[in-house]
Structure formats: structure tokens, C-alpha cells
Design brief:
Strand content: 15-25%
Shape: globular
Distance between the termini: 38 Å
Number of strands: 5
Structural class: alpha+beta
Strand order of the largest sheet: 2-1-5-4-3
Number of helices: 8
Helix content: 25-40%
Radius of gyration: 19 Å
Low-confidence stretches: 126-141
Amino acid sequence: MNPVIARYIPVADLIAQTFGPDCEVVLHDLSEPQRSVVYTVNNHVTGRQVGQSFDHLVPQVMLSPGLEGDVVSNYYFRTSQGKLVKSSTALLRDTGGEVVGAICVNLDTTPFTRQLEWLQAFLPGREEGAAVSPEGTGEIAHMGEVVTQLIGQIIGDRDISRLRREEKLELIRFMDEKGIFLMKGAVDQVGARMGVSRVTVYSYIDECRGK
């Protein structure tokens, strides 16, 4: 584990102990994007396991209009079990200013929403099913260098010329699932790193998506 990330383990424990068992804290080490999760507390909230990869980092953090000062707070997502989770993420940088990881705080709002629904049943003029939507203001941070770093870490030191087509597709599939190609210029960067044209990258993406 990167020493920068390891220093946040007591912080993760502190947050989880302060807010209780419905609060999950996850530490990511982005030097290995495919196995970025290196520490979890109360991981029953989302089921995150050490050795898994990130899920929401690119689409809901790096592309968020609420990203400010390396922090995005109070965005929502649902788990596969249907839990509505309120989440906040902070990017972690080393002394050179490079993003090396992230700390994510995930709060299961299910106990609260159940209580609210119960209370709303006694209040007049309230419609059920009000949607909860994340809000965010602030400057849109330029995260292109972080995506470039992620692409480099995902491809690693592999000799692309020796990879089988299936192995190349697996790399493309992973990057697509993690939202890498949502970032401007990512297709060109991946093509350059893999020694193929952007048309070939798009064809790989289409194949991975079953098109």
C-alpha cells in the first residue's frame, strides 16, 4: 500500500466509529486501478472488498460539476441491493501533487428514509416518492492528468505488441466500465498507448458493449 494512503487508515477508522455501522469508508490506491480498494471499514454497506476496483470515481467524482478542492460531497447511488447511499469522495495527492488515491465515505440512508416515509404518511399534502438528487456547485476541475495517469496504470508495463486480441479487449472493457472514455481525449490517449488508431479503439469499445 502506498504510504500516503496508509496514513489515512486512522482517519477511515475515526469516521466509521464516529458515524456508526451505517457508515462505510473505503480507501483506494490508484497505483493499481484494477485492484484499487486497499482498506474498508463497515463494508457491509456496499459490499466493497479489498482487491476490487473503483466504481464511481470517474463519472461521479472526476466529471462532477461539484468537484472542488479535490472533494465531491453528497452524491447518491444505489447498491445492487437497492440501498440509497449518500457518498462523498476526496482525492488524495502525494507530496509532488500527483493523485495517488481516494477516500470514500458511504452512508446508507435506508434507516433514515424509512423513518421519513413513516413520518410523511402523517403529514398532509406530501407526495410519496420524492426523488433525492445530488446537488453540486463550484468550478469544474481539470482532471485530464489524472485520467492519463489511470490509463498508464491500467495498461502498466505490458508489451502491447505481444498481447492477444482478447487481452486488449479486456483492457478496453475495464476502462469502459470504469468511465474512462467519458473523459475528453481518453480514446486518443488509449489508442496512442496501445499503438492503434482511434477508430480501432472505438471498434473495441463497440465490441465490448455488444454492438
